[in-house]
Amino acid sequence: MEVTVPEMRAVVAYPTRFVAEARFTYLGPTKQDKPLGSGQIRRQIGLKLRAANGCNLVYAMWRIEPKQELVISEKLNPGQTTSAECGTNGYRNLKPTRDITPPPLKEGQSHTLRAEAEGSTMKVFIDNKLHWEGLLDNEALALEGPSGVRSDNGRFKFEFFSSEPVSGRKNPPCHAAAGDD
């Protein structure tokens, strides 16, 4: 797939195990930037895990600008399901038990970003090397939902891979509202 717009959000259509991977080439900034809900301009690509909805999920984001870094966050807003309800509330960056600075992400380069959660342990790999490891809290562990991908203000060619569907779980109804992540 290729993304050229300032904001892209997607999840698979079925509940998954807690594994997601994007193999991508960074093609540079979008023609126009769109500020995040916080007002910040950030260029990034990332993965979603346990995406119960746009207000309750776990992110692994590889930020390109204004600062290159790997940031793992929980967005938790119990009782809220749409971005119109929760906006930019509920984000909490997780503290790593292991954290290695990602390689510089430059235009024209290809990389792999993989996130997986096994029990309370979350691991994030760049180009098959462990770069981040930490623990999810009980609220995030209780979330169930699909994996997905998102980007902001960057153009990317990418392939997205998710784990197999979780057997025995009912597929949640597909719904979206204006402004949903």
Summarize, please:
The chain is mostly beta strands and 181 residues long. It has 2 helices and 13 strands, in the order ββββββαβββββαββ.
List keywords for this structure.
181 residues, mainly beta, Jelly Rolls, 6-stranded antiparallel sheet, globular
Question: Can you describe what's shown?
Answer:
This protein is mainly beta and 181 residues long. The protein has a single domain (2-78, 88-162), classed as Jelly Rolls (Sandwich). The chain is 4% helix and 49% strand. It has 2 helices and 13 strands, in the order E-E-E-E-E-E-H-E-E-E-E-E-H-E-E. It has helices at residues 83-86, 138-141, and strands at residues 2-3, 7-11, 19-29, 43-53, 56-65, 69-75, 91-93, 96-99, 110-118, 121-126, 129-135, 148-152, 154-162. The strands form 2 sheets. Strands 1-13-3-9-10-11-8 form a 7-stranded antiparallel sheet, with no helix packed on it. It has a 6-stranded antiparallel sheet with strand order 2-12-4-5-6-7, with no helix packed on it. Strand 9 and strand 10 form a beta hairpin. The model is unreliable at 171-175 (pLDDT under 50).
